[in-house]
Amino acid sequence: MNGALSALAPHSSKRISEYAQRHPGTIDLTVGLPSFGPPRSFGERLAVLSGSPGESARPEDRYAHSRGAIELRAAIAQVYRSEQGIDLDPDTQLLVTNGAAGALWIAVLTVTEPGDEVLLADPAYMIYPPMIELLGRRVVRVPTSAADGFALHVPDLRKHLTERSRVVLVNSPGNPTGRVTGGGELADLCTFASEHGLYVIHDEVLDRFAYGIEHRSVAALDHHGHGIAVNSLSKRFGVSGWRIGWMVGSPAVIAEAAKAHTFFMLAVSHAVQLAAAAALRDPEADGELSVHAAEIQRHGERFLADVAQLPGLGGTAFPDGGFYAFVDVGEFARLRGIHVEDSIGSAVAEYLLHECGVAVVPGSAFGRAGERFVRMSFAGGPGQLDRALERLAE
Amino acid sequence: MNGALSALAPHSSKRISEYAQRHPGTIDLTVGLPSFGPPRSFGERLAVLSGSPGESARPEDRYAHSRGAIELRAAIAQVYRSEQGIDLDPDTQLLVTNGAAGALWIAVLTVTEPGDEVLLADPAYMIYPPMIELLGRRVVRVPTSAADGFALHVPDLRKHLTERSRVVLVNSPGNPTGRVTGGGELADLCTFASEHGLYVIHDEVLDRFAYGIEHRSVAALDHHGHGIAVNSLSKRFGVSGWRIGWMVGSPAVIAEAAKAHTFFMLAVSHAVQLAAAAALRDPEADGELSVHAAEIQRHGERFLADVAQLPGLGGTAFPDGGFYAFVDVGEFARLRGIHVEDSIGSAVAEYLLHECGVAVVPGSAFGRAGERFVRMSFAGGPGQLDRALERLAE
Questions:
Q1: How close, in Å, is residue A228 to chain B by CA atoms?
Q2: Count of CB contacts below 8 A, A vs B?
């Protein structure tokens, strides 16, 4: 058995959300899934592709092109044209994957060798470190701080550079911090990266949920072929269950990534790709998405303003992007006399789960710099948020 | 960039099948895909899950359980009960993956560490070696020979054992050789493996295409928790494009594999899993499958008997299983005066492609022991096989 794998605990948010599922009265703020479902165009296209199969296999019953159905790649290129103002070549700059997770590890595998180092913020999304380590690469955490909104600063990256540094992994809009790395800041990261021969992998799955600060993709800012964007349909269209993601990169990177993808995956679901293409080309779906994002923002702002009124949670603020509030619970723990064994965030998450029936993720799941925090999703809709607030206020 | 990845050529069958797609007159015998499509129950269930989405996300729009939808795991367990006479616990012994390919690499990652060795036959399915090497594990090829039907013998495995040996990878019914490893032989492999602390990973995607010799799964023969079966819906139901596969193993192996799967994949497509469950539970689909397999056998037997009449191809025989004939073309090359540069199989594949308009895969794609061979799929249906025969006879 793989000792490195055995040593990894299943991530704690999974444990808590499984508890929440076993206790139906629990209000589950652990999972960052919007309450809206897929656009009509997605389901309609898929229903056509599913219905009444004949005796013979249809093209979509067979393997898609290993880089992804060209129809979907063209639709993705069109999205980047309209949202980021760039022209991607669907033939050479895109690879369709099993969600953004499926793009991330293929990207890491493609641009690094065993023992190479991937720099990433502490705190950061919880699957990055185990995924990187299981590939035999090393994780180098660069601490960030709530004091300046968890920015990843170039001087801090520079301090952690070694001969084995190969990648800076950026997540913006960020999970769990909600930080949006602005265009100027991202351009500085790219400059730093190209000076040192690093790749910048940008997980931008929350791209359409930036509030106030404009979302910029590394695909639009990097001019040296070292930027790799990783994205998916999941948050955009509420279709995390359907598993469609993609990678954007230089032709050289995508050629190698596509080769690796063939060996591990052959391809991803053909018909679902075609449904994804229909949704991405659908102006109505795009309009609904803007409405959904504005609603999530409105409900989240109200919820967090109310949370900030609760004793000990006065520092709670609405983030620049994403679905999550990363809430400092140090003062809350003190006021409520919560006994802390492991970390403040874990103790508060346990307290909220068992005393209030509200499930949140302890910040320690995202790294040491998150130990005073818990992550609360505000994507679940106003009814859920109101009930959560009532329980928190009790 | 990853040097090991850059050094890998895209596999040659891919190059040839892409050529075939660009030249529509070509008869493509490279791809082992049956001509039949999915059963009605599959499409019907999926159409229901696709159609008329409401405002809100439905459960199947959201992540499936990371081990797979329990409904699908229960259906898979039922298949093994009826076909292999074993009781699998759907909660602890099954993991649903992105096709069998997605199960294979997770299995290798789970039971080995970097530098560990995986023993496999030469010739063997072409994605095994690059997939294993890209994970930082080592491939140890054990030569087999056409003289005894490409059997993988325990004494030969023993000769290749080292301190780093961890896995024997068996593919039965086999691609490209068509070999079916019988129950006694597979049991011997399991005994050998447990004596030496090895895992036996059994790729059994062609399980329902065994002719004459009964297919036995390692899941039914291993009693020491060291057997791991890898399988998929692709060949069984003609749905390679939909990407549903699975892994069967001991609770200890599956627990670790499921953890790794979460970090890399989160889950695979939820609704497609539910459609897969419907198809696996459908007795009509099972009946159709038996008919399809019998048809493939009948057409293949006739086709290969005719091929064996062609000058230089007299040794061609119908295999014990699968969709492929692995044909010794040494004499054929000599009779036709084909100039050999790289390998006999490559030269003959190029000749058949350009002179006859018939695409086959050179045996060298599967390993050194395949250099005198080409692989021809006979799954494409009688019309295609008749046209291929005409051209080969010209």
A1: 13
A2: 231
How far from A154 is each of A111, A169, A189, CA to CA, in Å?
Answer: 21, 13, 7
Rounded CA-CA distance A317/B225 in Å is: 51
Instruction: Take residue A209 and report the two structure tokens written for it.
Output: 């949920």
Residue B54's pLDDT is 65
**Residue-wise pLDDT tens digits, A130-152:** 999 999 999 999 999 999 999 99
Please choose, from the candidates A297, A299, A324, A354, the residue with its C-alpha nearest in 3D space to the C-alpha of residue A126: A324
| Cis preceding-peptide flag for A130 (omega within 30 of 0) | no
The CA–CA distances, whole Å, from B219 to B77, B190, B215, B247, B347 equal 11, 10, 12, 10, 40
Is the pLDDT confidence value at B16 over 80? no
Residue with tokens 């990097």: A222
Instruction: Please give the angle made by the CA atoms of B240, B243 and B245, to the nearest 5 degrees.
Output: 100
What is the model's pLDDT at position B24? 84
Q: Which chain B residues touch A268 with a CB distance below 8 Å?
A: 98, 243
Which pLDDT belongs to residue A118?
A: 98
Q: Is A125 on the interface with B (CB under 8 A)?
A: no
Give the per-residue pLDDT at A53: 61
pLDDT: which is higher, B53 or B366 = B366
> Do strands A94-97 and B361-362 pair parallel, antiparallel, or not at all (unpaired)?
unpaired
Cβ-based contacts of A263 with chain B (< 8 Å): 8, 101, 127, 130-131, 134
Tokens standing for residue B46: 């999926």
Nearest by Cα to A393 from A303, A330, A327: A303
pTM of the model: 0.95
Peptide bond into B319 cis (omega under 30): no
Band of residue B269 on the pLDDT scale cut at 50, 70, 90: very high
Residue B51 has pLDDT above 80, yes or no: no
**How do A227-232 and A245-248 pair as beta strands?**
antiparallel
Domains in chain A and their CATH numbers? Answer: 3-38+285-393 (3.90.1150.10), 41-281 (3.40.640.10)
pLDDT at residue B108 is higher than 70: yes
Q: Which of A230, A212, A199 is nearest to A112 (CA)?
A: A199
Helix (H) or strand (E) holding B334: helix B330-335
In sequence order, the 6+-apart residues with CB closer than 8 A to the CB of B350 are none
Residue stretches of chain A with pLDDT short of 70: 11-14, 52-54
Instruction: With cut-offs at 50, 70 and 90, classify the pLDDT of residue B13.
Output: low
